[in-house]
Amino acid sequence: MTALALSAFCAIPAQARTLCTVIADAKTGDILVRDGECDARVTPASTFKIPLAVMGYDSGFLQDAYRPTLPFRQGDPDWGGDNWKQPTDATRWLKYSVVWFSQRITVHLGAKKLTDYARSFDYGNADFSGDAGKDNGLERAWIASSLKVSPIEQITFLRRLINHQLPVSDAAVDKTIVVVEGRTLPSGWAIKGKTGMAYPRNSDGSFDRSHPWGWYVGWGKKGDRTIVFARLVQDDRKTAGSASFRARDGLLQQLPSLLVAK
Q1: pTM for the full model?
Q2: Spatial contact of 24 and 30, defined as CB atoms under 8 Å apart
């Protein structure tokens, strides 16, 4: 890592400790940046929406960016506020990380198909059993529960996705890429990615709300270069805002300097 990149990397906000930053060339698979413990598995939280979108499109449950549009139902998770209480399609689902829309897809697929897809994607431990003894895998396996994935496994999956190397239809991949939220950086990098946040569990099963994990995973294109990336952070104290936004904003700010001379 260059001195400039290292300086930018160390300038992360003190309240969010970076556990891993990994960036790879999407064409060759060469690792361009690797800093931290990138092989350790934790919950994917809402970054699971990217592989789940692939599953949803490949299975036919999702049709395109706007079909189906599903209604909020009484009793659905609503901690995301008013944006979660609106009729939701795949585009809104990814933009606002609507948990109940994920649950519609997981219930449609069932645990066996979810497991089969995840194993064929080499996505983490592919464990959709949920919390021990609670039979809630279809509701929350990916949210601080049984499903776990490492940053390295995240970028391996993403590389297979954008190179159309997953065992699914090309249409499922193309439609997934369309609905992942994107932005263009001042440096010219066109980025698509997904945030995710979840709280670790205490020994009694309760949530440790002072030390949330924050993810940002995705890919970027500039000219003839394509990269895949994952950043995982963890707050060291209770902090306003989302750890996932700190992961995203920190990585996007540092990305050009991290890639200097790579």
Answers
A1: 0.93
A2: yes
